[in-house]
């Protein structure tokens, strides 16, 4: 199947770390992505990881990839109220002769004082 | 600054109407996509296009068609709108090859069919 699964909600206190998890199905996916959607806006690419990497760090963001378990996570350090958004995990899937970008359902992150 | 522009932020249409959603990108991207976004279901691919006059069905094409007469413009058409097509519609574009390319999204069109 072409499922990318994520939990739907996460609530954290300001200043804590947030960890958003994702499982994907296509073991041949070359790139895995995290997109962020702020209220009333489209999606923006937050970060991505190449499948031959285990970890990628970019300022407050850390992406961890476990290929054996097909598990991807996004850690946001020192979470701020501006991080409140929906976070989508995505993978590229080769199907029917074309590459498609497949998204999870999105995790709504709520940051409270 | 890269830009994907959807013609309307909000639309209200009647059941049975033919509806056109327009998307324009100014980045000379080859690939363009239409998704619909529903709570708890995430983004589902309706149609995509890898070149002018080329289209491929996504995962949920039923009730929709598309048109790509020019590289920068990708239109989604609801042949006869129904209430179950009430949703947020997102257009995106990217360069080739998709594997390494960032997809840029428009702000979305919230369509309500009454």
Structure description:
The complex is a heterodimer of chains A (113) and B (114). With 113 residues, chain A is mostly beta strands. Chain A is 0% helix and 61% strand. In chain A, the strands form two sheets. In chain A, strands 2, 4, 5, 9, 10 and 11 form a six-stranded mixed sheet that branches. In chain A, strands 1-3-8-7-6 form a five-stranded antiparallel sheet, with no helix packed on it. Chain A is globular, with a radius of gyration of 14 Å. Chain A starts with a strand and ends with a strand. The model of chain A has no long low-confidence stretch (mean pLDDT 89). Chain B is an all-beta fold and 114 residues long. Chain B contains no helices and eleven strands. In chain B, the strands form two sheets. In chain B, strands 2, 4, 5, 6, 9, 10 and 11 form a seven-stranded mixed sheet that branches. Chain B has a four-stranded antiparallel sheet with strand order 1-3-8-7, with no helix packed on it. In chain B, a hairpin with a 3-residue loop joins strand 4 and strand 5. The N and C termini of chain B lie far apart (37 Å).
């Amino acid at each position: 199947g072409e499922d990318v699964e994520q939990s739907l909600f996460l609530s954290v206190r300001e200043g804590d770390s947030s960890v958003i998890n994702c499982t994907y199905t296509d073991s041949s996916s070359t790139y895995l992505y995290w997109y962020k959607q702020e209220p009333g806006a489209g999606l923006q690419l937050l970060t991505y990881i190449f499948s031959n990497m285990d970890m990628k760090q970019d300022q407050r963001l850390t992406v961890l990839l476990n290929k054996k378990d097909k598990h991807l996570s996004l850690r946001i350090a020192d979470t701020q109220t501006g991080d409140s958004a929906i976070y989508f995990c995505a993978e590229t899937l080769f199907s029917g002769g074309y590459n498609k970008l497949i998204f999870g359902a999105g995790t709504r992150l709520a940051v409270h004082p | 600054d890269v830009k994907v522009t959807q013609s309307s932020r909000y639309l209200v249409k009647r059941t049975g109407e033919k509806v056109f959603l327009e998307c324009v990108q100014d980045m000379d991207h080859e690939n363009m996509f239409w998704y619909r976004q529903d709570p708890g279901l995430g983004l589902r691919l309706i149609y995509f296009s890898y070149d002018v006059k080329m289209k491929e069905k996504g995962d949920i094409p039923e009730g929709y068609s598309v048109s790509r007469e020019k590289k920068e413009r990708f239109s989604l058409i609801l042949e006869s709108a129904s209430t179950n097509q009430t949703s947020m519609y997102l257009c995106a574009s990217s360069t080739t090859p998709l594997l390494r390319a960032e997809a840029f999204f428009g702000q979305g069109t919230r369509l309500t069919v009454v």
